[in-house]
Every structure is written in C-alpha cells, then in structure tokens.
TrEMBL record:
InterPro entries: MATE_euk (IPR045069), MATE_fam (IPR002528). The keyword Transmembrane applies. The chain crosses the membrane at residues 91-115, 127-145, 165-182, 194-214, 220-244, 265-283, 303-324, 345-367, 387-409, 416-440, 446-467. The lineage of its organism: Eukaryota, Viridiplantae, Streptophyta, Embryophyta, Tracheophyta. This is Protein DETOXIFICATION. GO terms for biological process: xenobiotic detoxification by transmembrane export across the plasma membrane. It is a multi-pass membrane protein. It is found in: Membrane. It comes from the Eukaryota.
C-alpha cells in the first residue's frame, strides 16, 4: 500500500503478495533493478492465475470445434448446419451471456479483495436470476432459427437443418446462463485450477462420447446435440457440486431470497458488460459475414473463416490473461492496493504483447505450410497465405486488447468501454473495411485491414484511458461501486 497505510483485512490479494513478495530486500537497487524485480514478482502472480485460465479457455473453446470435426462424418449439409448454428445462433447468445457474466466478475473481485466474502454467493445468485431471465428471451432466437437464417441469406437446406439443431441446443443456452456466474464466482477467489481440471475432464468426456455417438453409433446431428449439451451441463453441475460441498467457505452460505433484492444496479452493470464484450465478439464475426458479399465469395469466406478460427485459437492465451488480470485488478482495488493494481496493468500489457509477437512469428514462418492443414483448395490456400501477415498482426493486437479489456472489467469501466467499442469498431472499423474491401477493390484483405485498424484504434484509446487513470481514486471508490452496482443495502447486510 502507498503512504505507509496498512490493509484493514487480510485477503487473497494480500496472500499472493506474501507468497510472491513485493517486499524490498535490504540491498540498494537501481530503478531498473527495482522494476525488473517487481515485474518478475507480478509476472509470477499473473501466470499463477493465467495458466489454468488458459487451459480452461482452450478446453471450453474446443467443445464446439470437436463437435464440428466429428460432424464432418455426417455429411456436408449437416456439417454446415452445425457450424452455422454454433457461429450465428449459439455465438450470438454466447456473446451476450459472456458479457453479462463479466459484470459479476467486477463485483465479486472487488468484494473478495475487500474481505466481504459473504456477498459473493449473493452476487452469483443475482447473476443467475438475470442471466436465466435473459436466456428465456434469447430462447426465441433458437425457436425461430430457421426463418432468421433464411432472412440473412442462408440456403433453405442449411437453414432447416440448423434450425432443427438449434432447437436441440436450447439446454446449452441455459447452461451458459448457469456457467458464467459460477465461473466468475470461482475466478474471484482465484480457484482457476479447479475450473481447469473440470474443463479438461469435460473435454475428454466430450471427445469420447462424440466419437461413440456420432462416428460409431451413427446418431448424426442428434448425437452431436446430446454430447454438446451434456458436456456443458457436466461443467455446470461439477462446479456447483464443488461449491455446495463447502469448498468456498464464507463465500457460499446457501441459497437466499436476497438474490432477488437490489437487482437494478446489478442489471445496469451486467448490461454494460454485455454490450462491451458482445460488440467485441460480433465485430470479429463480421469479417466472415462481409466476405460473403465479395466476388468469389466461397473462396473469400473459406479463407476468412480459416484465419478467424486461427485467431480464435491463438487468442485463448489472451482470454486467460483477461480473466487473470480482471481478478488481479479487482482484488487489489478492493483491498485498497492502488500501486499493485496499476503495476499489474503494465506487466500484463507487456507480457501479452510479447506472447502475441511470438505466436505471430511462428505463423509467418510457417506461412507456406499451415494453409494446407485447413483446405485442399489451392486458391483458398493462396488467399490464406496472402492474409497471413494481417493475421499475425491481428494476433498481436487481440492478445494485447483482451488483456486491456481485463483491466477494464476489473476496474468496472464496462459502460465507458462499451461506448469506445461502438465508436472504434462500428463507426470507424466497419465503414473503413467496407471502403477498402468494396470501393477500393481490395477484397478480403481490405476487409481485414479495416477491421484491424478499428481494433488498433480501440487499443490506443484503452491505453490512453489506463495511462490517465488515478489508481488511488479507483481504489478509494471500490466500496462505493459495490453499493452502486451490488445494491443500496449492501453495507447493512454485511
């Protein structure tokens, strides 16, 4: 802490400081030596949290990918239908649910850092109420998936099959509604390893039963739906069982009617989080959609989809740092440790940038070889190769951007960043992409340039915001934010 103050409560943020140590030794150090020592200490903390978070992200991201791999044995139309449902119908819901769950990430992180453990379970239950209500409304996109897909230009055959598959996938929608509050509740307490173990088990379960039901027994799309639903509910029920067994101590004291109180402030933060992150998810998806209107649309869409999938895999590292950073920042602000919160943003920014450069370098070195792993079409392979420099640039940008978004979530800036995303992405990036891709006839490369320039602008704005932040004020306002978003009566309840 600054100015010689002492924390009022011993929290997990303090525990991490004790384990890895910010304390100076007795030897005199130069500024560079001091920076490098503190950088190493904070890096250990971030990797301690981020490593299992990355494993969790990769495993959960792989569930849908494995389903699509096995669906290739069913038929071309069925594979396309499952892919369309995963990317459009489920992807739309995923963006909203993930975003709304991130509101809980801010509140639980600050409350845990402040030692207000009893409120974590209440916050999680409030998030369940809000997300399950949202799921009931989103369910209509699953029910009417067929006409929706026809309206946006999908073929009748794919729309019919995808619509049928969407109806079967409604249980997954409610698994999303339960899972994200559970995940944020556990993340705030730094229980990343538990989530990683559960996700690995779910992935193994998913791969085996996908092979059994789809490839071996020939259940087709029905088998794909059964396994995907069961895998997500396995994650939900296992995490819930872990909590109900008492592993979270005072953070879970049982179900309470308080979950239905003071929902308005909580809802505002959840909606701001949903807008912030959903705009991010849908922005990347726009590349594939816009590519469908180009000349040689099939080749453009295939190449853009391959690059987007690679971008998704490589940014799982950024997703892990996103979760770890939001926990570090919110915990330290809740514990009134502004210096540690500020320094964590510096370390995660540098680390994610270096990781992005490393991954991009690997991709560029293998630029002639890797396209053949995804397509047998020589035209598609050539276009993917031409897009490789842009894809490498995108990997660097999005790994850094996800880390900075974690800072915003931890500090509770979701509403502000939602406006930034709207302006940078949809008022600058998309129009520029359309201009370059269609007006200047740069094709799919023009679309990628436009979208990436929008992302670079967003990243620059976030860096500017973080650089101008008064972290002492942020720490002092953490308690006020708990009252504002968690409910007016929080102080009397604790």
């Amino acid at each position: 802490m600054e100015n010689g103050e002492q924390p009022l409560l011993t929290t997990r943020a303090d525990d991490l400081n004790t384990i890895f140590g910010y304390e100076d030794d007795a030897r005199p150090r130069t500024k560079i030596q001091g920076f490098l020592k503190d950088f190493w200490v904070e890096s250990k903390k971030l990797w301690y949290l981020a490593s299992p978070a990355i494993i969790t992200s990769v495993c959960q991201y792989s569930l849908g990918a494995i389903t699509q791999i096995f669906a290739g044995n069913i038929g071309t139309s069925q594979l396309a239908a499952i892919s369309v449902e995963n990317s459009i119908i489920a992807g739309f819901s995923y963006g909203i649910m993930w975003g709304m769950g991130s509101g809980l990430e801010t509140l639980c992180g600050i409350a845990f850092g402040a030692g207000q453990l009893e409120m974590l379970g209440i916050y999680m239950q409030r998030s369940w109420v809000i997300l399950n209500t949202t799921a009931l409304m989103l369910m209509f996109t699953y029910i009417f998936a067929t006409p929706i897909l026809k309206i946006i230009g999908q073929t009748d055959e794919i729309s019919e099959d995808a619509g049928t598959f969407a109806l079967w996938m409604i249980p997954q929608l409610f698994a999303y509604a339960m899972n994200y509050p559970l995940a944020k509740f556990l993340q705030a307490q730094n229980k990343f390893m538990v989530m990683a173990v559960i996700s690995v088990l779910a992935l193994v379960f998913h791969a085996f039963f996908s092979w059994l039901l789809i490839a071996k027994l020939g259940w087709g799309m029905a088998g794909a739906a059964v396994v995907l639903n069961l895998s997500w509910w396995f994650i939900v029920l296992t995490q819930l069982l872990y909590i109900l067994r008492g592993a979270c101590g005072r953070a879970w004291t049982g179900f309470s009617w308080m979950a239905f109180q003071n929902l308005s402030g909580f809802l505002k933060l959840s909606l701001a989080s949903a807008i912030m992150l959903a705009l991010e998810v849908w922005y990347i998806d726009s590349l594939t959609l816009l590519a469908g209107y180009l000349k040689n649309a099939e080749i453009s869409v295939d190449a853009s989809t391959i690059c987007a999938n690679i971008l998704g895999w490589t940014t799982m590292v950024g997703s892990g740092f996103n979760a770890a950073t939001s926990v570090r920042v919110s915990n330290e602000l809740g514990a009134i440790h502004p210096r540690e919160a500020k320094f964590s943003t510096v370390v995660v920014g540098i680390t994610s940038l270096l990781i992005g450069l490393f991954l991009a370098l690997i991709l560029i070195i293998t630029g002639k070889q890797y396209p053949s792993l995804f397509s047998n079409d020589s035209d598609v392979q050539e276009l993917v190769y031409q897009l490789t420099p842009l894809l490498g640039f995108g990997i660097v940008v999005y790994n850094l951007q996800l880390a900075l978004a974690g800072v915003a979530i931890g500090a509770g800036w979701q509403a502000y960043v939602a406006y930034v995303n709207l302006g940078c992405y949809y008022l600058f990036g998309i129009p520029l992409a359309l201009l370059l891709g269609f007006k200047f006839n740069l094709g799919v490369q023009g679309l990628w340039w436009g979208v990436l320039f929008g992302s670079v602008l967003e990243g620059c704005v976030l860096i500017w915001i973080i650089n101008r932040t008064n972290w002492n004020n942020e720490a002092s306002m953490a308690g006020d934010r708990l009252k504002q978003w968690g409910g007016e009566s929080e102080e009397s309840e604790i």
